[in-house]
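Title: [Solved] Mannopine transport system ATP-binding protein 3D structure

Original question kept below for reference.
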Amino acid sequence: MIGKTLSLQSLSKRFERTVAVEGVSFDIAAGEFVSVLGPSGSGKTTLLTMIAGFEAPSSGRISIGGQDITGAAPNRRNIGMVFQKYALFPHMTVHQNVAFPLRMRRVDRLAIRDRVRMILELVQLVGFDHRYPNQLSGGQQQRVAVARALVCEPPVLLMDEPLGALDKNLREAMQLEIKRIQSKLGATVIYVTHDQDEAMTLSDRVAIMSGGTLVQLGAPADIYQRPCSPFVAQFVGKMNFINGECQRDEAGTCHIRISDRITIPAPSPSLSGAGHLQRGRAVKLAVRPESLSFAPPDSATAIPGHIDAEIFVGAFRVYLVRLATIGQPIVQVQLPASTSAGPFRRGERVDLFAFKEAFHVFAAPEA
Ligand SMILES: Nc1ncnc2c1ncn2[C@@H]1O[C@H](COP(=O)(O)OP(=O)(O)OP(=O)(O)O)[C@@H](O)[C@H]1O
Ligand SMILES: [Mg+2]
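Solution (posted by the thread starter after getting help):
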C-alpha cells in the first residue's frame, strides 16, 4: 500500500458561535508523518473529523491523491481513524471490532482470521479476542482501536491521541510499532498528541495549532529552534523570556538592552525577527534553559543573577536564577547532571551566558 497526498485548503468549522477551526491550509506528501500539537480546544479533533468525513466543513476543501473528497461519505474516503475516545463497538468482541473493516470490504473468512491475529500480535493483545470493550482497560481499548485502524492498511491514517491512556513503557513500544507499520506501508499519517516528545520522535513535520488556526508547520528541529511566535516558543519545550528593549547602533543593527548596563547583541535578523523592530520597541528575549550556562562561551555577554534553587531531575539539573535587574522574571538554567558547576548556595551570585544565536527576539505585546 502506498500513501496518498492530502491537501487542506482554507478549512474552517464553526459550531454556532464557536469557531473550532479557521482557515487551515497545508499539504502533506504521500507517506509523510505529520503530528498536530496544540492546547486543549485548539481544534485538533475537529480538524481530523472533517478530514475523516464525520463533520462537514463550514468552508474549504479537502483532497486526497488530487481528488476532491470534501463532500464524500466517510466510508468512501479510504481513511483509517483512531478516535480520541476509542469508539469501539460495545456489542462486538475484540476480534469482531478489528475484523469489522475487513468484513465491510468483503475479505474472505480465512484471510480475516489471519490478518486479525497478526495485527493483535502487533498490539500485544493475543488472547483477548473474545473480550468485550467493557472488559478491557483504557489502554487495551486504545490498542484495539489502533489495530482496527491499521488492519486495512489505509493509505491515509488519522490518529487522535491513540496512546494517551498508556503508561510510558507500553507507549514507547507502541510508538515504535506505529512508526514501523507506517513506514512499511508508506501510509500518510496525521497524528494528534499532547506529548511533545512523541510528536518530535515520530514526525517528519509538526503542526502547531492555537485557537483553531495553524500557527506553525515545520520539521521538529525547525519548530524547536526557530519558533515563529512567543506562543510556539513557550508551548514547545521550555523557554525563558527576558524583558528588553530594541536599540540600534550606527549601522542600524538591533541590539537588545535588558538593563542599564547589559545589552545583548541580537542574533541575525533572519533568525530572530529582530530586523523589523523599531528602536525603543519593548521585546521579549527568549532563550532555552539548556542554552544557558555558567561558563562563558567565547566573548558572550554575562547576565548577572542569584541562585534561587537547584533541582535534580535525573538526567539533568535545573537552576532557578533570579536576575539581578529589577522587573525581570526568574530564569531556568538546565545543565547535565554530571556538570561540574556548583553546588551553589541559595543567593549565591552567578553569571549566565549563552551564544547569541541561542536568543530569539519577539516584539512584546503593545501596552
Ligand atoms: N460538536 C460541537 N459543538 C460545539 N462546539 C464544539 C463541538 N466540537 C468541538 N467544539 C468546540 O470547538 C473547539 C475545538 O474543539 P476540539 O475538540 O477540536 O479541540 P481539541 O484541540 O481536540 O482539544 P483536546 O486537546 O481537548 O482534545 C472547542 O472550543 C470545542 O468546545
Ligand atoms: Mg481532541
